[in-house]
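Late entry, evening session. Most of the bench is empty. Finally got around to the prediction I had been postponing all week. Sequence below, unchanged from the version circulated by S.P.
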Amino acid sequence: MADRHSIAEARSKLPRLVREAERGKAVELTRRGEPVAVLIGRHQFERLTGQHRSFFDAYQAFKEQVDLTRLGIDPDEVFAGARDATRGRDISL
């Protein structure tokens, strides 16, 4: 859960709040008791706003880092039931 601070309080504690955000803790800022903003670290911001990879690209990168055969994991077996093998619906063009 994020620490909550009023904007007025955050003005006097900004260096400490920035250090907390750098360490990965979100800091919620409030105005009159209502949440209005969140202070987060640069790493977390880049993770949230960065380009997302497709599942295929993420899986390829994962396979480069992890030796599945050494772990005894067969991807064909794991994903065997993931795709419907039926022909699909008939269409007329």
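Two things to note before I forget:
Residues 3-48 form a domain with the YefM-like fold fold (CATH 3.40.1620.10).
The chain has a mean pLDDT of 89.
Will write this up properly tomorrow.
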